[in-house]
Amino acid sequence: MSDRFASAFGRRVVSRTSAEELGKLAHLVVDTKRLRVTSLVVGKGRKALVVDWEEVSGFGPDAVMVTGESALHPPRDDRERAAADGKLEMVDMRVLSDLGNDLGAINDVVFDPATGVIETLAVDDREVPAASLLGVGSFAAIVRAPAE
Amino acid sequence: MRLLVTGSAIRGLPVVTISGGEDVAEVRDVIYSPEAGRVVGLTLNKRGFLAGRRREVLPAETIRAIGRDAVMVDDEGSLIQPEDAPADVGAPPSGRDVTGDEVLTEGGTSLGQVRDVVVLVGTNGQVVGYEIDTTSGGTGYIPLSTQLAVSGRALVVPEATKDFVEDDLVGLGAAVDEFRSRLGIQ
Asked: What ipTM describes this predicted complex?
């Protein structure tokens, strides 16, 4: 079963140990080398906290279960701070090919909620395989140029 | 289909890292070598309105592609200090600017004056022609072949060039291949 970033945003993040709702899912952060989700951002603005993917015990259709409240931590480095600010959010991000041409914007990202593996990107309603993703930053996502 | 841009369209493009997705600089100017017939590098500004000049330069060898919307590099390490760059990029000889040079055919016909270079999109700076102010007062585009002579005031081009003065970049894109095959070059 696949899930989609756009439909996951706003989903409850719940502690498995206390059953308390800890916040709402705001962003998913992707490692472009491993092509998988590496962390989640819960909440927005200055109160945004980060959860490592390893602390997610179940990414379900109605709630994202995490191991406990202690799994949520403030951003630890520049990349996590950028992520907490939403600057690395892939949905709505501009897409450039490695040849320097603007391909549009990412509408959605399809991923496997069991493993966090990214499957495809929807770029202006075209499907782009995740394997062509080369980098994600605050300016753009870079993908290998499609064959002409 | 060849996609072409003028040098002036390259100025202001963001310089973006492929691995990081960050805009690390923007193009200030194009360093063109008329002898080599190619862009040998780019000078840079900081990103942002009125952010000022960046000291580093971008030699063509470290450019992955000059695109329609961005100049792509592997990472920020591709931007190097002028001292570390090849001499024609780090300290380009003066008088190399072809802008304003008269374009003369071998047979002695003046086609006009060079206004800009035309670069093949997706390459790291291959120049395929010139944008010119034609002698009749309009804008024209001519394909570049092996240049015969460059003086700093004028450049001499093959006689056949006068049959390939195009009105726009699309026309030049088509003309480049035909022109080259007529002259027997690849």
From this structure: 0.82
